[in-house]
C-alpha cells in the first residue's frame, strides 16, 4: 500500500482537515444538546407515540445516506420547506455550504448520542431523583444537578461516537454540500476525490489518518463504558 508524506501546511490537506474538525465538532455539539434533551423526555415520560418518536430518532442509523440526503434536500434545499423560507426571508442558502455539511453530519450523528444518553439516563436510579424532589429541586435543576451527572459517562461516550461518525460522514454531505475544495470538501470527500484522480498514495494516507483517529475514539469510549467499582 502506497503511503505519501503529507505537508500538513499544504492547503490541499489542511483545509479539509480543519473543515472536518469544524463540521464534526459543531455536529457533535448539536447532537449532544438535541440528543440528550430528546433522550431525557423519552426516558422519563410515557406518552402516546413514544415508540414512534424513538424509531424516528434512531432512523438515521439504518437509513441509507443517500435517502437521508434526499430528505435534507426536501427540507433545506432551495425549493425545500425550510430552505425556501430561509432564502426568501433572510437570503440564506444552506446548499453547497459548510453549514449544510454541518446539518447533514448532525443528522447522522444524532442517533448515537440519543441512544447512549437514553440508556444512561434510564440507568439512573429513580431514588436519587425522588430524593432530590423532596429537597425542593425543580425538574430542570434536577436534570442538571442529579440526572445528567450520573449519566455523564454514557453521554460522553455517545458524544465521542457521534464525533467519529460526523468525521466520516460522506453520502448525505455530498448530496447537500457537494465536494467543493476549500469550501465543503471534508476529509472523507478528499479521499473520494483522491481515488477518483488515481492518487492512491494520498488516499491511503488520508484513510490511515482517519482510521487512527477513529480507533483512538473507540478505545477511549470503551474505557468510558467500563464499569467503575
How would you briefly describe this protein structure?
The protein is an all-alpha fold.
Provide a descriptive summary of the structure in words.
This protein has 229 residues and is mostly helical. The protein has one domain (11-225): Orthogonal Bundle (MetI-like fold). It is built from eleven helices and no strands.
Number of domains: 1
Which of globular, elongated, flat, extended, rod-shaped describes the shape? globular
- Tally the helices: what do you get? 11
Give the name of the CATH architecture: Orthogonal Bundle
Overall SS class:
mainly alpha
Show unreliable segments: none
Helix content: over 70%
Oligomer: single chain
Q: How much of the residues is beta strand, in percent?
A: under 5%
CA radius of gyration is 20 Å
Distance between the termini: 44 Å
Could you say what the CATH topology is called?
MetI-like fold
Sheet with most strands:
none
Topology pattern, helix = H, strand = E: HHHHHHHHHHH
Q: CATH superfamily membership, which one?
A: MetI-like
Number of strands: 0
CATH class: Mainly Alpha
Average residue-wise pLDDT:
87
Amino acid at each position: 500500500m502506497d503511503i505519501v508524506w503529507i505537508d500538513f501546511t499544504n492547503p490541499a490537506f489542511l483545509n479539509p482537515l480543519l473543515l472536518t474538525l469544524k463540521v464534526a465538532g459543531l455536529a457533535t455539539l448539536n447532537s449532544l444538546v438535541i440528543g440528550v434533551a430528546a433522550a431525557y423526555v423519552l426516558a422519563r415520560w410515557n406518552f402516546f407515540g413514544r415508540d414512534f418518536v424513538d424509531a424516528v430518532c434512531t432512523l438515521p442509523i439504518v437509513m441509507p445516506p443517500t435517502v437521508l440526503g434526499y430528505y435534507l434536500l426536501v427540507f433545506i434545499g432551495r425549493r425545500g420547506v425550510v430552505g425556501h423560507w430561509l432564502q426568501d426571508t433572510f437570503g440564506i442558502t444552506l446548499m453547497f455550504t459548510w453549514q449544510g455539511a454541518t446539518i447533514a453530519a448532525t443528522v447522522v450523528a444524532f442517533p448515537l448520542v440519543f441512544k447512549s444518553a437514553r440508556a444512561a439516563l434510564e440507568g439512573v436510579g429513580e431514588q436519587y431523583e425522588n430524593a432530590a424532589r423532596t429537597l425542593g429541586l425543580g425538574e430542570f435543576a434536577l436534570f442538571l444537578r442529579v440526572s445528567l451527572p450520573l449519566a455523564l459517562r454514557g453521554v460522553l461516550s455517545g458524544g465521542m461516537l457521534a464525533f467519529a461518525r460526523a468525521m466520516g460522514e460522506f453520502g448525505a454531505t455530498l448530496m447537500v454540500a457537494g465536494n467543493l475544495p476549500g469550501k465543503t470538501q471534508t476529509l472523507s470527500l478528499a479521499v473520494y476525490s483522491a481515488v477518483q484522480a488515481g492518487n492512491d498514495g494520498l488516499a491511503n494516507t488520508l484513510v490511515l489518518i482517519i482510521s487512527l483517529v477513529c480507533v483512538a475514539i473507540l478505545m477511549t469510549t470503551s474505557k468510558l463504558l467500563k464499569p467503575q467499582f
